[in-house]
TrEMBL record:
<dbReference type="InterPro" id="IPR036291">
    <property type="entry name" value="NAD(P)-bd_dom_sf"/>
</dbReference>
<dbReference type="InterPro" id="IPR002347">
    <property type="entry name" value="SDR_fam"/>
</dbReference>
<comment type="similarity">
    <text>Belongs to the short-chain dehydrogenases/reductases (SDR) family.</text>
</comment>
<dbReference type="GO" id="GO:0016491">
    <property type="term" value="F:oxidoreductase activity"/>
</dbReference>
<keyword id="KW-0560">Oxidoreductase</keyword>
<protein>
    <submittedName>
        <fullName>NADP-dependent 3-hydroxy acid dehydrogenase YdfG</fullName>
    </submittedName>
</protein>
<dbReference type="Pfam" id="PF00106">
    <property type="entry name" value="adh_short"/>
</dbReference>
Length: 249
């Protein structure tokens, strides 16, 4: 995929899948905007990538910050063609009778409201330009209850519905909306899951996780027409045929 001339805004770009996605998009020729709360980490990554990257401190739970991040991206790079809604959180992990309700709500704010905030802020710009691609990181947890992950499962199920809604309302206007379910990926999130010791995912051997550059490369592929079969739907990296099609493994 050649993304020369395109601009991508990636949320949660301070580490893990988001940081690898920023590297992969820049390598494919895109200009990138790196969004996360950890300003030092995104600034360091922008320095590593070079002129084509700008770091924008932003908390995706606050709409006005996301709107400002889109404006800053457009001012720096001249437009916005691709949004990657990647920022996410899994903690607090715990069963429903024990979990702190406010901390439960924080996960919804990041994983569900944060995704809506990204879509809502990017849409006017993209619709004005005649189209754009909005990719959201989903999860198998959207479709399958997983012990002690009620906030995460509910938020990912909701985020998948937002991708379907976006496709329903805006495909005809040129918006490509897709979700990526990466399987388990070797990042800080899996370290936190392992530390919890609850449920079968926490007991997986570390070697079971795919490296973060796999979802990053899948996201680059999803920007092309080859992925149009999946519009309004989910690309799952647990699918061996699809992995082969993308050139992973
Ligand atoms: N790892 C897996 O096995 C796996 C599997 C399926 C799906 N996913 C999904 O993939 C995405 C990336 O996860 P990861 O594994 O790379 O996790 P990670 O290493 O924990 O990274 C999470 C990223 O989200 C950012 N973030 C969290 N809250 C934010 C907020 N309020 N505003 C802005 N940024 C925020 C963090 O940056 P700051 O803290 O600097 O803000 C960080 O860059 C998530 O949506 C996750 O649910 C992961």
């Amino acid at each position: 995929m050649d993304l020369t001339g395109k601009t991508a805004l990636i949320t949660g770009a301070s580490r893990g899948i988001g940081a690898e996605t920023a590297r992969a998009f820049a390598q494919a020729g895109a200009k990138v905007a790196l969004v996360a709360r950890s300003a030092d980490a995104t600034a360091e990554l922008a320095g590593e990538i070079g002129q084509s990257a700008v770091a924008i401190p932003c908390d995706v739970t606050r709409y006005w910050e996301v709107e400002k991040a889109v404006q800053t991206c457009v001012a720096a790079h001249g437009g916005l063609d691709i949004l990657v809604n990647n920022a996410g959180a899994i903690e607090p992990i715990g069963r429903m009778a024990e979990i702190d309700p406010d901390r439960w709500g924080d996960v919804i704010d990041i994983n569900l409201k944060g995704v809506f905030n990204g879509m809502r802020a990017a849409l006017p710009m993209m619709l004005n330009a005649g189209g754009g691609t909005i990719l959201t990181i989903g999860s198998g947890a959207a479709h399958r209850p997983t012990e002690a992950w009620s906030a995460y499962c509910a938020s990912k199920a909701g985020a998948f519905m937002l991708t379907r809604m976006l496709d329903l309302e805006y495909r005809a206007a040129g918006i490509r909306a897709l979700s990526l379910s990466p399987g388990t990926v070797a990042t800080q999130m899996q370290r936190d899951i392992k530390a919890s010791g609850i449920n079968e995912i926490s007991r997986l051997d570390w070697s079971a996780h795919i490296p973060p550059d796999w979802p990053a490369r899948a996201l680059v592929w999803m920007c092309g027409t080859d992925a149009d079969d999946y519009l309004g739907d989910e690309v799952s990296l647990r699918d061996d045929d699809l992995r082969a099609r993308i050139g992973l493994g």
